[in-house]
Write a structure and sequence with these properties.
Elements (H helix, E strand, L loop, with lengths): L1 E6 L11 H8 L4 E6 L12 E2 L9 E2 L1 H11 L7 E11 L2 H7 L4 E5 L8 H8 L4 E5 L9 H12 L32 E2 L2 E2 L9 H19 L1 H5 L8 H10 L10
Parallel strand pairs: 1-2, 1-6, 5-6, 5-7
Antiparallel strand pairs: 3-4, 8-9
Helix pairs in contact: 6-8
Bound molecules: ligand JD8.
Length: about 260
C-alpha cells in the first residue's frame, strides 16, 4: 500500500519509523511518504495561510501550495483516495479502517489553523475520490494526530503487517463488543489473583467467560454498542446477561 501525507509538521509522523509499522515499511509492505507542504511555497516566508474570507478569527490554509503539491505527488494515471482530516468529517471507525486497508493508495491532507480553503477539497474531488474524515468528537489543533491514528489503524490491517492475523479477530470493535480483560503471570500479584477459570485449562469455559466479560464491559461502558448488536449473533446466555444488566449491582469494573 502506498501512503502519502501532506503536512506542515512532518515530524509528527516519526512514530511510523518504529515498531511493527517501521518493520512493514522496511519489508516493502507499506510505502509511506511524508511531504512538507512548505516545499510548494514560493515566498520568502513560506506562507501557507491567509485571512478568512468573510472575516472572523484565525487563518485558513491557502489553496496554491496544495494544488502544486497534488500536481507533483499525483503524476501519471493512478489516483489516490484523498482523506482530508477535519472535525467536520465523517467519523472514522474500525469499519472505515477495514475498507481503507483494501485500497492501493491513500493520501492524507493535514490541515492546521482553521483548516483548508474548501476549494482544495472541491478541486481534488473532481479528480479523485475524496473523503473528509474526523477522528472523533473533540477538537485538535490540526489534522496530524488524526492522520497518524488512521494510518496506524489502517496499516495494521494490511496483510502481512501483523504476523499473527488471528489476533486481529478478537479485538475490541471487531465483533461489535469490547474485549475481555487480559492477565499474565504471576497467579497472584499484590493480593490480586487471576480468575480461576483462566487457569482451569477448560478452553470452552475460558471462551464463555471471555464472552460474558466482553458483554458485561460493553453493557456498562458502551451500551450504545450493545443496542447496535445483530440479534442473531446473541445466544440464550447473552440475552440473559443483557436482561440482567438492567438490575445488576454496580462493581469496581465500571469505575
Ligand atoms: C484538522 C485545523 C484545527 C481547531 C477549527 C479546524 C480530525 N477529531 C478532530 N478534532 N479536530 C480535528 C482537526 C482539527 C483541525 C484540522 C482536523 C485542521 N484544525 C481546528 C478549531 C477550529 N479547526 C479532528 N480529524
Amino acid at each position: 500500500m502506498r501512503l502519502d501525507v501532506v503536512t506542515v509538521f512532518p515530524e509528527y509522523f516519526s512514530p511510523l519509523d518504529l515498531s511493527l509499522i517501521g518493520k512493514a515499511r522496511e519489508r516493502g509492505l507499506i510505502d509511506l511518504r511524508v511531504h512538507d507542504l512548505r516545499r510548494w511555497t514560493h515566498d520568502v516566508h513560506h506562507s501557507v495561510d491567509g485571512t478568512p474570507a468573510g472575516g472572523g478569527a484565525g487563518m485558513v490554509m491557502k489553496p496554491q501550495p496544495w494544488g502544486e503539491c497534488f500536481d507533483e505527488v499525483i503524476d501519471g494515471q493512478r489516483r489516490p483516495h484523498l482523506l482530508v482530516t477535519s472535525p467536520a468529517g465523517e467519523p472514522f471507525s474500525q469499519k472505515k479502517a477495514t475498507e481503507l486497508a483494501r485500497e492501493d493508495w491513500l493520501m492524507f491532507a493535514c490541515g492546521r489553523y482553521e483548516g483548508l480553503d474548501q476549494r482544495v477539497v472541491d478541486y481534488a474531488a473532481e479528480r479523485m475520490p475524496v473523503t473528509e474524515v474526523s477522528l472523533g468528537d473533540y477538537v485538535l489543533f490540526g489534522g496530524e494526530v488524526a492522520a497518524l491514528t488512521m494510518i496506524e489503524a489502517v496499516t495494521r490491517l494490511v496483510p502481512g503487517v501483523v504476523g499473527n492475523s488471528a489476533s486481529l479477530d478478537e479485538e475490541s470493535h471487531v465483533n461489535g463488543l469490547l474485549e475481555a480483560p487480559a492477565y499474565t503471570k504471576p497467579a497472584e500479584w499484590r493480593g490480586h489473583v487471576i480468575p480461576d477459570v483462566l487457569r482451569s485449562g477448560d478452553h470452552g469455559a475460558v471462551d464463555r467467560w471471555r464472552r460474558d466479560q466482553s458483554l458485561i464491559r460493553t453493557l456498562r461502558r458502551r451500551p450504545d454498542l450493545v443496542a447496535q448488536l445483530d440479534e442473531s449473533t446473541l445466544d440464550k446466555r447473552d440475552r440473559h446477561l443483557i436482561e440482567r444488566a438492567g438490575i445488576d449491582e454496580p462493581d469496581a469494573d465500571q469505575a
